[in-house]
Structure formats: structure tokens, C-alpha cells
Amino acid sequence: MLNIRIEKTKNPKPLPAADDPLKFGTIFTDHMFIMNYETGKGWFDPRVVPYQKIELDPSAMVFHYGQEMFEGLKAYRSEDGKVLLFRPDKNIERANNTNRRICIPEIPEDIFLEAIKTVVKVDEAWVPSKPDTSLYIRPFIIATDPYLGVRPADTYLFMIILSPVGPYYPEGLNPVKIWIEDEYVRAVKGGIGEAKTGGNYVASLASQVKAHEEGYSQVLWLDGIERKYIEEVGAMNIFFKINGTVITPKLNGSILPGVTRDSCIQLCKKWGLTVEEKKISVDEVFKAAEDGTLEEVWGTGTAAVVSPVSHLRWENKVSKIKDGGIGELSKKLYENITGIQLGKIQGPDGWIEVVK
Amino acid sequence: MLNIRIEKTKNPKPLPAADDPLKFGTIFTDHMFIMNYETGKGWFDPRVVPYQKIELDPSAMVFHYGQEMFEGLKAYRSEDGKVLLFRPDKNIERANNTNRRICIPEIPEDIFLEAIKTVVKVDEAWVPSKPDTSLYIRPFIIATDPYLGVRPADTYLFMIILSPVGPYYPEGLNPVKIWIEDEYVRAVKGGIGEAKTGGNYVASLASQVKAHEEGYSQVLWLDGIERKYIEEVGAMNIFFKINGTVITPKLNGSILPGVTRDSCIQLCKKWGLTVEEKKISVDEVFKAAEDGTLEEVWGTGTAAVVSPVSHLRWENKVSKIKDGGIGELSKKLYENITGIQLGKIQGPDGWIEVVK
Ligand SMILES: Cc1ncc(COP(=O)(O)O)c(C=O)c1O
Ligand SMILES: Cc1ncc(COP(=O)(O)O)c(C=O)c1O
């Protein structure tokens, strides 16, 4: 059992007002979790402390060589006032996969979970209760050696910060327009695409800026080798319903294995749908759009849960899906997953972890 | 003209002892340069201040989304006591290329150069004078918005830190053993390989660890698409001399355009050698090794200038070059470039910038 030291803030911030839109990623709670690592000593001194700035040497390795990882999950307030986590074991497992890929020491799974639960419990009052709100949980690790040179670090900080968030799209379930990128590449087989590390996100910025300028809110990436197979959206996995079959790109080493992706696959199968995880080309999707068999397209991710896609733009073609509306299956998935997250619907065994 | 505020330290550190080996990247000088950026305001408040830790919010974007860039160059002490920079304009140009690729606001070239010269002048006493020593200069930029979400930041810090360094290899010009990577990929066309940003280095760690375990000091990367064309070493570009011709991989978008690489090409051409920048496959290199036409292999980079390569390992083949010794041309390049850097040899116009 972990001995987490707790130091409460002496200057609690006011909680956000009931009508605060809780803009994603901008408000932070009163406390944070922090734990150190040193080679030879392992992870040590787990503690919950007042939310505060961190001090690092300007030569700290994270600023230069990108050895950093993060995760993202949420705590939900159920109608009867409980605080629930959705499949935290999946995030913890993925965190350690990321750690292994980028040579960060792993964190024992039980310690990781206890750290999350402890800091969420301390800031429990910050878990909002309005519809479509939640407490976003951001665990992350950074390399801190004051050293200029490329090698795995010997010292790290593991932190968990918390941010109350409103609906990702203020209007709720909202179709998004997607730009299929044909110039830049996000990740390639053999690279770090399946790890949740900064290098994949910085690689996506230029494309995102271009897409926004053209009126598209998200970028869909193609594979880096043939530039024709669909991979994933900037911060979502992607699904297609073609002729009754649900299709999503197979995990191939360059795609992030999304927790929401896995949850969608499991629910669709439970509902008797055929789900195929396979290589799917952008050509196939555009052909299905033309011949009328492309029934739905949606993205999946922790932030927005399910995002119906209304438009796909590729080179000079734009395909409008479902007349720009919300598909039936997208809606059903959204309602079921959010229902499970809020404890209103009974999900598969082990999907909900009660914090309080 | 830039108005750089200078605040000198009240607690200068002792200079390293004359016999200190100055281990690369571990000792930092008394001062650092720092300048802020805010959208709408541009770069502002350039200043030289005592070397000190920086304070950042744990949500600072650099910790999560990898928006960070760096450069590396050196100041040299000439025999007559001057302080010289080697081709800083090339580093500054490359810095802004990196900035554009990863959506960091550019820094005007004259301001960048003045910042380097000013901080080096303040810490001039730290420029060492023993053979094979220099002052390593590390400019870098990090995204600092306290915000969780993937987009280019609105606030940045640009800093320059300085580190006196000894010879990269304590024994001087020293042949290295190189591991040609066949599992992992560093970068791919369309990605961020030609930018000097953390994401490329974190991607290289796992491979470096594996190579070290096998007794190889550096990793040579192949292209991410066909996995057969040679790209570059972890922190060096690579050259081959085959049958009298000097060959180095063409800049293709996934390779860092090294300043030392460019300098080697220019000098070799000046000396009447044929230099080809082209796609070269690992097969070609191993065939040349077998038929005896592979005369020399060397890496080029700011840290070690020229590193002769003694062994290349690819899959299960190991090729020993020049009986493991140092090639003539590698030696001539090393002596000429270091000679120019120290002001002993007259280099091409514009290669040397006098700080003091
Ligand atoms: C690149 C990328 N793909 C997919 C996802 C979706 O993963 P999850 O459903 O676990 O949030 C995310 C967000 O976490 C992501 O950053
Ligand atoms: C990936 C990579 N390639 C090549 C180089 C060599 O570049 P330069 O000669 O400018 O130091 C470096 C080091 O700076 C590097 O990091």
C-alpha cells in the first residue's frame, strides 16, 4: 500500500460558478499529485500538494529532447453524488506502453491508480455535476536531468493535474468537418505514433493550422508510407459504417489505441454489429460515399466521446455525410458511453471504478 | 538595434579548473539569455540574467505537446585570445526553419545573432582555451501557455544557455562503431525530421539503448518508407568515400541539414573532390565494403566535428572500415574545420563571426 502524503492548500480557489462554461483545459483545481524518480532509487515521495508551479533547470532534458508522456481520462459525477472513473486501467496500461517506447521507467499499475484516486478524492468538490461536464485528469511524466545530451534521463517527475471541463462542443453532440491531410505525416510504423508523447502532437500543428484556415476543425491522418490508408484524427480514432459494417483502422503501431475506440468496438459487437479492424484506404471511403453505402463516420476520444463527422475533404473532393446530420449509431454510442460513464447505464464488467 | 538588459550575477561560480575534463553538457555558465513572446506583442524583454531555474505551470504546453525547438553551436577561443563563432548564420537560419515547421514564431536573424553574441560576451571568461575545448551554445524555445489542448501556443520563452565543453571523445579524433537500425524509425518524409525538435530525439532513445547494449556507440537511421536508404546518425550526418567520390545522403525532408555537413561538402569541393548528395542504400555501402571500394566513412556534427566510423553493423553483418583506423580525408576535414574554428586557418568568407 502506497503512503501518499497529503498537504492541503491554505488558499483554496473559489469553485467555478454554476454557469461557467468550463472551457476545456483552462481551469485547474486546488491540488496536484507529484512523485519523483531517480535511477537506483525508483519512484519515491508520492504526495498531493497545492497546485503550484514547478521549477526546472533550463537544461532540463524535457525542454530539449522531448522525453515526456501524458494520459487523459475523466472523473464523472453520478446522479447520486458518487465520483466515477471510466476504464482507468486502460489508460494506465497505455501509459506504461508509452513509457517503454520512450525509455521512461514504468509506474506500477496499483500505484498509478491509487495516485489518481487520491488526488481526485482530495479535490472531489471540483467534480462538476451539470450535464456533459466532468473532471479531466491529466497524468504526465517529464525528464528533469539538467543535462544536454541525448540519452534516457535518470530523473523524472510524475504529476497528475485536474481540470473541470464542460462539453467539448458547447452545443453538445455536434458534427465536425474533417480535413484529410495529404502533405504532412504524423507518425509512421517503427516511430512513436502509438505512444502518447508530445512529439506526435507537435508534428500535427502545421496541418491543423492549415485545416482551420480552410474551415475544417480536425485533421485526419493517412499512413506515412503509401499515403493512402486512414490512420486517425488529431486526438480521436475514426470509425466508418459502410453497408451495415462498422470499420475502424487496425492498430498498426502508428495509431494511438484509444480507450473510447475499444469501448465502441465492444459495444457495437455486443449489439450484434459486425466490426472490422482493418486497413482502410481513403479511396474506399470516398467510393462508398459516392455509391451511397457510407452510412456514418464518427471520431472517438475521451474529450468529446463521440464526434459525428459531417464532411470529409481530401485533395479537391469534399464528401458530405448523412446530409451533415448525426448518424443513428453515433448517437446510440454517445448516449450509451456517457450513460455508462455517469453510472446511469450498466456497462460491461470492470468499466467503472468508484472513487467515492 | 536591440536593447538587451543585462543583470549580472552577484554570486559568480568558480570557473572550472584548468584540468577539468569539461564533460559535455554538464557545466553551465553564470548567465543566460531570455526573451518572451506573446501573441499580439511579439518577442519582448530580451535580457541577460544570472543562470537560474525557470518556473512553469504544470499545464505549460511544452510538457504535454512537445512544442519545443533547439539549436547547438560553439564559441572558440583563438590563440590570440579572441572569441569566435562558426557559421552562426546557418544555425539561425535552421532555427527559423524549425520554428516554421512547428508553428513557433520566428526570431529576426539580427536579434538572434545579437542575443548569442551578448550572452557569450558576458560569460566570455568561460570560453576555455585548452586544445579541443569550446563553449557550447544552446539556444532553445519552449511553449509556455498553461493550457491543455493541441494548438500552437500563444506564449513562448526563448533562452540561450552556455556550457564549456571538452573534446567529445576524451582521446580526440576517435573511430566510432555504428549500429544501422532495422526496427525503429526516427523520421519520415512529411514529418518533422528536418526540424531540430525534441520529438525526433525521443523517438531515437529505444534504439540507442539497444545499440549501446550491443557495444555500438551510435545509431544510423534508414528511411522510414523503404527502410533501405541511409539517412543520418543520431546527432550527426554521415559521409562515405567510395572509389574516390564523396557521397552523403541528399536532404530530403527527414534529415537534419547539418552545418558541419555543409562545411564538409564545401571544403571537399574546394579540394577538387567529387561530392554527390544523393540517395544511397545500405546495400550499396555494404557492397562497396565487400569489393574494397569503401575507402572511408565518417559522421559530422557540431559536438565531435568529424567522427571516423570504424564499424557498421546491419542485420547480422558487420563491416570493418579502414581496418578500424582513421581515414585520410576524415583527418584532413577534422584538422581543417577545427583550424578554421580556432582562427588558425583562413576559411571561406563569412564562416567566422568575431564576438570579441
Ligand atoms: C492521437 C490520439 N488518438 C486517439 C485518441 C483517443 O483516445 P482515447 O479514446 O483514449 O481518449 C487521442 C486522445 O486521447 C489521441 O490523442
Ligand atoms: C539529428 C542530427 N543530425 C545531424 C546533426 C549535425 O548537425 P550540425 O553539423 O549542425 O551540428 C545534429 C546535431 O546538431 C543532429 O542532432
UniProtKB/TrEMBL annotation, chains A, B:
A GO biological-process term: L-leucine biosynthetic process
GO MF, one annotated term: L-valine-2-oxoglutarate transaminase activity
Catalytic activity: L-leucine + 2-oxoglutarate = 4-methyl-2-oxopentanoate + L-glutamate; L-valine + 2-oxoglutarate = 3-methyl-2-oxobutanoate + L-glutamate; L-isoleucine + 2-oxoglutarate = (S)-3-methyl-2-oxopentanoate + L-glutamate
Pfam families for this protein: Aminotran_4
Native source species: Anaerosacchariphilus polymeriproducens
Cofactors, names only: pyridoxal 5'-phosphate
Family membership noted in the UniProt record: Belongs to the class-IV pyridoxal-phosphate-dependent aminotransferase family.
Main enzyme class: transferase
Residue positions, PTM N6-(pyridoxal phosphate)lysine: K196
EC number assigned by the record: 2.6.1.42
Keyword Membrane: no
SUPFAM superfamilies: D-aminoacid aminotransferase-like PLP-dependent enzymes (SSF56752)
PANTHER family linked: BRANCHED-CHAIN-AMINO-ACID AMINOTRANSFERASE, SUBGROUP IIII AMINOTRANSFERASE
Keyword Amino-acid biosynthesis (UniProt): yes
Protein's recorded name: Branched-chain-amino-acid aminotransferase
Pathway: Amino-acid biosynthesis; L-leucine biosynthesis; L-leucine from 3-methyl-2-oxobutanoate: step 4/4; Amino-acid biosynthesis; L-isoleucine biosynthesis; L-isoleucine from 2-oxobutanoate: step 4/4; Amino-acid biosynthesis; L-valine biosynthesis; L-valine from pyruvate: step 4/4
Keywords annotated in UniProt: Amino-acid biosynthesis, Aminotransferase, Branched-chain amino acid biosynthesis, Pyridoxal phosphate, Transferase
Upper lineage: Bacteria, Bacillati, Bacillota, Clostridia, Lachnospirales
PROSITE patterns: AA_TRANSFER_CLASS_4 (PS00770)
